[in-house]
Amino acid sequence: MAGRAVLLTPHRGETGDEATLPADYRRILAIVRAAGGPVQVRTVGEELGLEVGVRGKLEPLRAKMTKVADRGWLHKRPDGKFTVRL
Q: How far, CA to CA in Å, does 62 sit from each of 7, 13, 58, 72?
C-alpha cells in the first residue's frame, strides 16, 4: 500500500479481536485453545491435515505459529510448545 508494509497478522494489543486475523491464523489459535494445554507444532499440523511425517512440511506452520506468538496471540514456551495467552 503506497510503499508501506501492511501487517496481515496484527499485534494483539492493537485490536485484541481475533476477527482481524487471517482465517488460517484463527484456525491455529482455535486448535491450540482446544488442546487445553501446551501443544506441539506436530499436533497442530495433524489437526490441519498436514503431512507431519516429513519435518520440512511443518516448518511453514512453525513459522506461522512463531509469528503469532511474536505478535502476542500465542505464548511460545522454552520447550518449543505453544499455549494460548490469557
A: 18, 22, 6, 15
